[in-house]
Amino acid sequence: MIDKKLMRKLWEDFVYRGHLNRSIKPEIQEAWLRSREYGVNPHVRSGTQILTSEGLAKLQQHNHELICISLPLMENLYSFVKGSGFLVILCDENGYLMKTLGDEETFELANRIKFIEGASWSEEAMGANAIGTCIAMDGPIQVWASEHYTEACHPWTCSAAPIHDSEGEIIGILNISGPVEKVHPHTLGMVVSTAAAIEKQLQIIEKTRGNAVMKSLLEATTDTLSEGMIIIDTAGKILKTNEILHRIIDKKEHELAGKDISEVFDNRFFKEISSSKANVVDKEIKLKISGSEGQVGVLITSKGIFQHKKKIGKLLTIKEIHRVRQMINEFSGNQAKVTFRDIVGESEKIRKVELEAIAAARSDSNVLLTGESGTGKDIFAQAIHNESDRRYKPFIAINCGGIPRDLLGSELFGYEDGAFTGARRGGTPGKFELAEGGTIFLDEIGEMSLEMQVLLLRVLQDKEVVRIGGYKVVPVNVRIIAATNKNLQEEVEKGNFREDLFFRLNVIPITLPPLRERCDDIPRLAEYFIEKLAMRIGRSPLKVKSAFYETLQQYEWPGNVRELQNILERAIVKCTGKMLGPEDLPADLFADSQTATEKELPMKDEIKRQALVQSIKLCDGNYSRAARHLGVSRSTLYRQMEKYGVR
């Protein structure tokens, strides 16, 4: 180490003549050059930048955690130098003194040069010194005597080391300052060790805080899951559960934590789960909670938890079956989309039917919709469901005539694993289970086989189903809306339909009128369909000639509303202009309407009436044959019958 007097001479050579001797430590040379560049006065006798009491309080509050963590370690460091005239000082990253410990006599010397809490000892303020130069070089350094740039510090020896955060950024400086005569290289080592200990303590606290945050995040995440969760150790002891599970089984976390899982649940599955090595995926069971008579239908999945390839526990997820089915129904489109507001028509007959259907929706009784094909029975079924208390539950439609007889049973009632060749592994629920709480729409019920009618009757009577190939009874709560274009009373008389099932279904009968009996609604229906179809096809809005509607009203519509839709779509595609007219309609429809408008029965009123009556009698009440017999369309025949009071 350079002699104190020689160091003073080297300092004077630089301050007065700008000469830097090579024997000076390189880091001190660089610090002196920076100090001159900053314009620091080397002859100052005390600190020049000092915070107000309010500013110091704010600084200490901002660095409260660093001070609290550092203070015990600073006290430990001070215990080694106590009584030797040293100060232990904690500074912020900008060189402001925040906390000092030391001997009383040394404090008095420090006060004389304003080396106090709130003072800045950065290189910009005081030139080269242990605190400021430590910040500038981001490393530990010892500065003594005239190595300091300002004369205020020449009587001191100072050792400083930086304190870093987890990102490697300087957040503080630890410094020991004392009489220049007490300089010793070990002093710097003590400071470096203590600074490292502070950094380690900061890392531990940050890691602990991170673990706490992660724990909170994991707990929040598990509580937002849509399924129950249980974590058990290898002995079957419950370690963690979530809020969903607490709701499913109606138990609190403190009632479950630390207990053996087989004590909480009575199912055999849980008695074997700890020793079982295999994972389980969506196993369906009736969850039996110990001490409770209630059971909950659930799907359970179990998966091993491993650490360093060693199994340390299992994760069980529990999904309520009714919620799973609700999700399936939403994704598969098992929802009614139509309401009574969507039904187009203002005629007296359709309004009467709507009022009957609305009244039916307010009850929970079975409904039987009858009427010709294409009259909108499926539309009314959806509207009834959406007007009922079951509107937020599934609406599942099944066409009894569109599914092969052998498959209808499995569609309605489901089947167990291995029930038949090709059965899905694990089995599958039927429509009745999937519709739990909602509505099943059985379209074309008249086409159902007698064997299936027996099974359906049993479901309606007992309110429960048994899957094909199974034995477990599954309670079901569904409403039945059935529909047919047949006369079920006649089918009963013919032996094609069970009378007891007919009575079960025919609680609220609603008959939908054919389109020919609500001719006044045809323009409104046509206008509605034209707008929708043109948009779907990609056509710009079309105008419609009045003759177009008149022609539609003259047709008898054997296919009802469904036929009207098809013919309108054909007309829109055929139309090359921006206005629909009779010429865009199919030729046979146009010809029929011309016949209807041009042909009149060539008789006086009474004669006409008698002719109508005779023709209908000759044709055994078959109106189509009677119309052909008279050479007119069916629609003309109906109008004439209404005009002359023929029934």
UniProtKB/TrEMBL annotation:
SMART domains documented for this protein: AAA, PAS
Gene3D superfamilies documented for this protein: 1.10.8.60, 3.30.450.40, Homeodomain-like, P-loop containing nucleotide triphosphate hydrolases, PAS domain
PROSITE patterns referenced in this protein's UniProt entry, alphabetically: PAS (PS50112), SIGMA54_INTERACT_1 (PS00675), SIGMA54_INTERACT_2 (PS00676), SIGMA54_INTERACT_3 (PS00688), SIGMA54_INTERACT_4 (PS50045)
Pfam families: AAA_lid_14, GAF, HTH_8, Sigma54_activat
Keywords, alphabetical: ATP-binding, DNA-binding, Nucleotide-binding, Transcription, Transcription regulation
PANTHER family cross-referenced by the UniProt entry: C4-DICARBOXYLATE TRANSPORT TRANSCRIPTIONAL REGULATORY PROTEIN DCTD (PTHR32071:SF57), TRANSCRIPTIONAL REGULATORY PROTEIN (PTHR32071)
Keyword Chaperone among record annotations: no
Domain Sigma-54 factor interaction: 343-573
Sequence ranges assigned to domain PAS in this UniProt record: 214-284
InterPro entries xref list: AAA+_ATPase, AAA_lid_NorR, GAF, GAF-like_dom_sf, Homeodomain-like_sf, HTH_Fis, P-loop_NTPase, PAS
Keyword DNA-binding carried by entry: yes
Source species, domain of life: Bacteria
Name of this protein: Sigma-54-dependent Fis family transcriptional regulator
